[in-house]
Amino acid sequence: MTVSEKDILSSIIKFQGEYSRAHFELVSTYLFDAQNSILKDLDCNLLLSYLILKSFQSIKKKNVQYSYNDLLNISELEPLILKKSEIAEVLDYPRETVRRNINKLIDHDLITVDKKNIIVKPNNCLSDIKTSIYENSLKKCLAVIFKNLNLQISHEKKLDANSINLKNSFSLIWCNFLEMIVSISIIWKKHHSNLGCWYLAGTCALNQMYNTKDFKFDLNSENYTENFFLNLTGKKNNRGLNPTTLSELTGIPRETVIRYLGILIKNKTLTKNKQNLYFLPTNIVKEKNLIKNLERVHLKVSELCFEMIKVIS
Fold first, then answer.
1. Residues 86 and 70 in one domain
2. Does residue 71 share a domain with residue 216?
3. pTM listed for this prediction
4. What pLDDT digit, counting tens, does each position of 289-302 carry?
5. The domain boundary residue, chosen from 127, 148, 183
6. Does residue 269 fall inside a structural domain?
7. Quick one: which of 147, 183, 206, 209 has its CA closest to 304?
8. Does residue 172 sit in the same domain as residue 284?
9. Which tens digit of pLDDT belongs to each residue from 201-228?
10. Residue 312: inside a domain, yes or no?
11. Domain count, the chain
């Protein structure tokens, strides 16, 4: 395989509008499932994702793979020796929040704790995952990469995004996916104040993408990210979303949505018009922290795509 992470990263940045449609859909699916799971809590779900990730990383190191059906027939994975303080540091939460959410996971029978060992119960944690939806979203992400890197791989066996089989290679693919999702969740949680604000901002961005038929980038411009947001936030795309619709789309209670929108307005991530519709403003490109965090996210996304290509090569 001659495609490198650097090639993939360059493609994602250069064709950011095209790739972001698929990526936002993938991440939105994860956040929707997290918010509407039995936990009803994005923070608690992030902790669970981290614990599943650590368990799957251990499996990956042993060069072992499990299919989705295999995991549904396993009651417990190998114990994880993790201190609450370590988890709190990695996920950037207060230790008390981690303790409370671990107890919540125990109450829902998703994990057990034996002294200092945390044990993930895959048959309970993974049973509600809509594998076909995630597989389809992952295929869309890779399809963009394959399309825009066609010259680099044309002399080899033709790689096809349709070769992804999430159910058969579940532990490996899901490990790669969670490595990306946990990393970018931490980045955006800090940037937007909390995960709920990130979800709402992302939902507004996705809505504006759907309202944008053509992304016309100046490929001679050095700042593709700024170019992307200028297209995304153009006046013709500012058909925003109201709090009720955002609540229905995300599953976040309306009262909480209104509170989070207040934070996003204060942080100048979103703006609203006279119809009380919320959307990303054009001047968001001036926010230096946003650009810096997007660069970090792009790195994590390129790592995911690179690992996914390795799986199907």
1. yes
2. no
3. 0.90
4. 888 898 899 999 99
5. 127
6. yes
7. 183
8. yes
9. 999 988 888 776 555 544 444 455 555 5
10. no
11. 2
Grade residue 195 by pLDDT with cuts at 50, 70 and 90: very high
The CATH number that applies at residue 59 is: 1.10.10.10
Token pair belonging to 203: 């939902």
Tokens 């993974």, residue located: 126
